[in-house]
Every structure is written in C-alpha cells, then in structure tokens.
Design goal:
Serine Threonine Protein Phosphatase 5, Tetratricopeptide repeat, 29 helices, about 0% strand, elongated, mainly alpha, SOCS_box, 3 domains
Length: about 450
Amino acid sequence: MISGCRYTGDVIGRSVVAPRCSRVTGLLVIFLAVESGCDAVVKLLLRYKANVNGPQSCSGWNPLHQASLMERTDLMQLLLENGVDKESRDDFGITPLFIAAQYGKYGSLELLLSQGADVNCQAKDKATPLFIAAQEGHEKCAELLLSTGADPNLYCNDDGWQLPIHAAAQMGQSKVLEMLMSVTERVHNTGRDQVSPVYSAVYGGHVQCLDMLLSGDYSPEAQECPLFECKTPMCMVIQRGHSVMAPLLLKYGFQLSSFYLQSCLEYNNFPLFRYFLRQYCPLPSGEELNAFKQQLSKNHYKEWLPYLLLAGLDPAPLLDATWIRSDNNDLVNFTLEFTNWKRLSVDVEMLLSTHAEHFTWISHKRFASLPSLTHLCRLKIRSLLKSEHLRSNKYISQLPLPVCLQDYLQYSDVLHHYGIARKDDSHEDNLENISQASD
C-alpha cells in the first residue's frame, strides 16, 4: 500500500518530487487503519475520538489524503463526518483533492467537490488540481473540475506563464487539450512576456497537439521566448530535434529566414537544413554569411555547402580570408568550382596566392587553366534560372536537355569528384525520415 505522496510536476521548466514514504515510524494508528483498508478499525477509532487531523505520515499526509488516493469514498465520508480537515496540506502544499486529481480518482474528486473542497487550491509550486489532471491526462477529472469552477487561467508556476493548457500540450494529452482550448484566454498566443502552448507541444514532441493548436488559430510564430532561448517555436523544433514538426509549422504559415538555416547548422541538423532549402528558405547574404563561416571548423561542409551553392548562393562573398584560410583544402577548391576562377577579384586572387605559398593548400590543376566552355555555359544557364528552380531535381529534369546535360547543370561531375552523394529529395521530404535522421 502506498503511504505518502508522489507528485511529479514534469512540465517545461519545473520538476518537483515528493518521495513515497516507506517509514512507519511516526504514523498514527488511524492513518495505518485507513491505509490498510480496515473499515471496522477505522470506525472503532473514530468512536473513541481518534485524532484525524494534523500530519500523520512522513510526507505530512492525514488520513483523508490516503483515503482519497485509495478512492475509498466510504472511509472519506466517515472521516469528513468526524471533522477531518478537507483542506489539509502535506509538506508540498498538496490537499486530498489535489491527490484525487493527480491519480485520476474520480470518485474521491467528486465527493470532495460536493463537500466544498477548494477546486483552485495550489501546491507550494503553484500547481492546481486542473493543472495536474491535465498533465496526467485524466479527462473525466479535468471535465469535472472545469464544471465546478476550476480556473483554467490561474497561473501554475512562480514565473507566471504556465497554465493547464501548457501541461496538456507538452504531455500529449490531446483530449484534455481540446477541452482547455475553448476556455483558456488567448493572451498567451502571441502576447509579449508570455509563452504560447505551441512551445509546449513542440517541447514535448507531440504532433497531434501541435496540429490542434495551429488549426485552432494559435500562431505558428508565437512570440520570442527568452525563457527557453527561442526566437520562435521553429527554433525549439531545431534545438529539440523534432524535425517532423517543421512542415506542420510551415503549413500554417510560418515564415522561414536564413536564420533557421544557420540554426540547423549550429545543431548539426543537416536533413532539416536541406528540407528548408527545398521549401524556398531565403538564402543568406551580407553579414548573415558570417554565421555560416563559423561552421567551417566542424568539417561537415559536404552536408550543407553543396546544397547552398546548388540553390544559387553566390560563392563570391564566401571567398574571404576566413574561408580561404580554413583548414579544409577541399572546401576552398569546392567553392571555386562554382565560379569562373579566372575572373576572381584582385583581393581574392591575392588571398589564394598567399595561401598557396605559405600553407598546405594545393589547388586543382584545372584552376591554372581557363574554364572550359561547357563550365562557362553551365554558369550562364544557372545564372538565368531563379533560385527556386535550382533547389530541386524536378525543374532541371524538365528542361529540354539530354539527361547528361541536366546532370551537368546540377554539378554531378563535381559532386562525384569530391565524394559527395546528393541526398534524394523524395526520401528527405518524408517527415519520418527527416525526424529519424536528426535524432
């Protein structure tokens, strides 16, 4: 038999645990009688005016806490008739009603509410019975609490942002979430200094809950969330590796920028990086490129740089001192493949010359010669195509050209030379594949 309480508020930003009590020392006899379910002994003790109040276990429970956990409504009724404090709090500020909500003891909950127990009582960490019922997915209990006055807009943490709807979204309790969406104020949707439940659904990795929120007019952009160091929910998607959620945010109107390409590189989420490019994410430019140059030390350029250049990124701004002096010789050579290397700026020529003279970089022999006519034609044709046409095999494959020239336009010869196998678009567009690849 359980004696004591186990309360776990395992929701974003908090984790409060009240351990189970295994000691018998200090337990009062009536508590033991209730715990053992001995009706006759309980009645006998009550007849002789046994003390039913005050902490009677190592975690501060009284007999009503224990009877509520056991859903012994008959014993609860006896205790209530004999003056037990229905609002008694244990060491964590938890009442018998809270226990009933946490463990889904509907009968106990119904009885306590009928006796006027505080439906909005808060534990020491501010959690409410509705919050814990939402977290644990006890739908009938949540419905009963709401019908008897539970406040879905009562903050359940010290920071003043967390509501029952956040708990339901994070823990994947879709049925409770549906209840709460219709009664929770929308200030958290995009309100400043608030946290949208969209973040909670993403944090927990629950696609169904995210879809429910977005289809219910919660914004995919939400608000900036300094608490979790997230500019938007998409940042959390990338940080948590829940790539399967990215297409859902895009479906409901999330706007990509090159910032998210940068974030993918920061977290080594290359499949999602490539997916964003195919979804027409704007390419980086100007100072935005500096963040990409910081990724050079990771030596993963084959996972992202080819796709950036194939999408139409101008390689010229990349060829600065940082890029050319990187430790990866192949990186410099590969970038030059996307240029007319005989028409580079004077500054770039000087950097390359100095680098070749003082470092171990060895350029390919062909860079000493004029580019072939076919290469120049490739550069010209690609310059005439829009970036969105360059991001997928589909458009190139529809051009009135022999297959060998279509492949050449997509740099198949260069990719093969550098040992780069271009990832198949159809495979990586599969949501499950994206998610698994980023785990």
